[in-house]
Structures are given as structure tokens and as C-alpha cells.
Design a protein that fits this description.
about 45% strand, alpha+beta, nine-stranded antiparallel β-sheet, elongated, about 20% helix, Lipocalin
């Protein structure tokens, strides 16, 4: 074969091979870019989160804690409110995983008579919550166990009058449009936090004046980004 023809053939083959290689490389780059875009799209944070978790600040103007106490017979009960001073909830992958709530005990009020009355003033005294010495009560969430899509059981450390005990209670929880709504009920034995006034555990012969050791708290919490 003519050496010139042989050189031309080899040169054409090299060019063809180079063309095939460039085409393959370009195709591979496009495919890789598509895969990376797909992965990045999948891994993009949800609108609720920064990364996979987000601290949501409690809206203190729309959140409230309702309390209920009664005598031992249950015939005479009192209901009122306490307001949240600050707090935050930690949301991870759309679920509640932690948080803290601080309650201002100076905001105790009676449902029917407001804050400035004999009952409320007595609740602030050492017989009950000793508010001047212990102005805040707090709960810090330590664990959350899902029950279903909207209901969870929360365990946390509840501190009242400087005394801390663990408590567990159910919470109905919802996240929608960047807003968290939590609704829960907690019943405690007040004597565990040194609230002993007219308790049958510490006072004898109180008859129908004996007060129940149980205090019920109903918490409605709104939290936002």
C-alpha cells in the first residue's frame, strides 16, 4: 500500500476516534450534570427548614396556657390563664423534636375576674407559686415519641418554684405553611412542686375545704419561622 494512503487512513481513524471520544465525553458530562441537578433538587431543603432542622419561635401573643384547679369533691373549680413569655420549638423533617417554653407566673389571671383579685393574689403567695421568688416556670422537652401523623407523646422537665420533675403528656401537633400549632393537656400533682395548700397529704380535718392535688394545664402554642 502507498505509504501516503496508509498515513491518510490512520489519520482518518484517529480523527474519527477523537470525534467519538469527544462525543462520549460531552454526553457523559451532560448526563452527570443532569444527575447532579436531580440530586440537588431532591436534597433541597423543605420550605419549612433551614437544612433539615429549624427553630421556630413561639408567638407569645397567640399562645396561652389555661389552668384549672378544684376542691377534692370536684364541685368547686377555678379556671384561669397564664401567658408564655418566650420559647422555641425545634422541627426536624417536619416533626417536633425538642424545644423550651417559659411561662411568666406574674401573668396569672382568673377567667372571670382578671389578674387583680383575692384569688390571683393568693396564687402568687408562698401558699401556692411564690411568684415574687420564682417568677418563671419552664418546660424543656427531652424526648418526643410519635403516635400517628398528628399526635405525639412528649416527655420534658417541668420546673416550678425552682423544683424540676419529668412529665409526660400527649400533644396534637401540626405544621402548615411555616406555622406550627401544638395543643396539649398536662395534669400534675402540685405537691411534687411544693404547692401544699389545703392538700390532704399535709393537712388533717379539712373536710370539704380540701383541695385536689391535681392541677390541669391546657397549652395552646403557635410558633413561626
Amino acid at each position: 500500500m502507498n505509504p501516503y494512503h496508509f498515513y491518510c487512513m490512520n489519520n482518518k481513524l484517529s480523527i474519527n476516534n477523537l470525534t467519538l471520544f469527544i462525543t462520549f465525553l460531552a454526553f457523559s458530562c451532560r448526563a452527570t450534570a443532569k444527575e447532579e441537578n436531580k440530586i440537588n433538587s431532591t436534597a433541597s431543603p423543605l420550605s419549612l427548614h433551614a437544612g433539615n432542622e429549624k427553630y421556630m419561635m413561639i408567638d407569645t401573643k397567640q399562645s396561652v396556657l389555661t389552668w384549672k384547679g378544684q376542691n377534692l369533691s370536684g364541685l368547686n373549680s377555678q379556671t384561669g390563664y397564664i401567658y408564655i413569655s418566650k420559647g422555641e420549638l425545634m422541627i426536624e423533617n417536619g416533626q417536633l423534636t425538642g424545644g423550651t417554653v417559659e411561662v411568666d407566673m406574674n401573668t396569672i389571671e382568673d377567667k372571670n375576674h382578671g389578674r387583680d383579685n383575692k384569688l390571683v393574689n393568693h396564687l402568687k403567695d408562698p401558699d401556692f407559686f411564690e411568684v415574687e421568688k420564682f417568677p418563671y416556670a419552664t418546660i424543656a422537652i427531652t424526648s418526643v415519641v410519635p403516635v400517628n401523623d398528628k399526635n405525639q407523646n412528649i416527655t420534658g422537665n417541668l420546673t416550678i418554684k425552682g423544683i424540676t420533675h419529668p412529665v409526660t403528656f400527649p400533644v396534637k401537633f401540626e405544621v402548615r405553611n411555616g406555622i406550627v400549632k401544638a395543643d396539649s393537656k398536662l395534669v400534675i400533682d402540685r405537691t411534687q412542686w411544693d404547692v401544699r395548700y389545703k392538700s390532704s397529704k399535709f393537712y388533717d380535718k379539712l373536710a370539704n375545704q380540701t383541695m385536689s392535688d391535681s392541677i390541669e394545664f391546657h397549652m395552646k402554642i403557635i410558633a413561626r419561622k
